[in-house]
Predict the structure.
Amino acid sequence: MDTIRHEFYETDEKLTLSIFDKGADPELVKIHFEPRKFTYTHGEKSLVLEPLKGQIDPAKSDYSVGKVKVEVRLAKAAPGRWGALVGDTPDPLASFPTSAAPTTSATRKPRKNWDGITSEILGSDKSVSPDQDPNAGGDAAVNEFFQKLYADADEDTRRAMMKSFQESGGTTLSTNWDEVGKGRVEVKPPEGSEWKKWAA
């Protein structure tokens, strides 16, 4: 029997094992989980990992067969890092039945509440009024100004604003319909810029 190339990565709760068996037939793949042993067979290919570095929960462990690899998820019976797949480390759960919840004396560091920190920082920012800083608000203030101007305008002013902005490619905004309604609004790029018409 051939041994198959494999690699793994782990979290405190599970270990994910990738077995590189390209084109494995899900019907022929046989996987057996035991608390300290894992067995994989597919035709002539096999992989036996014994003894596992830590104990697993066979009922919570599972696998999926892909086109390039078989991914096996081993659920750890006790949280923690193994550092290796196999090892002669004494089993810390040997004196406990596998269904019992593990007891641990290690305390976890409390997690940071990043949402709370973000809201606190944003809440502590004082909004600056335009009287205190003429540049306060940036684009949001400018957009708000134009939205208010458009909303409060009469029908002719709205038509003038839309026509002048569209025909000038965004370089002109006029509220005078008498002037804009006479003809096409010409493009007036900012000083030092050149207007180019792009082919569609």
Summary: Confidence is low (pLDDT under 50) at residues 95-100. Helices lie at 114-124, 138-152, 155-167, 177-180. The CA atoms of residues 119 and 125 lie 10 Å apart.
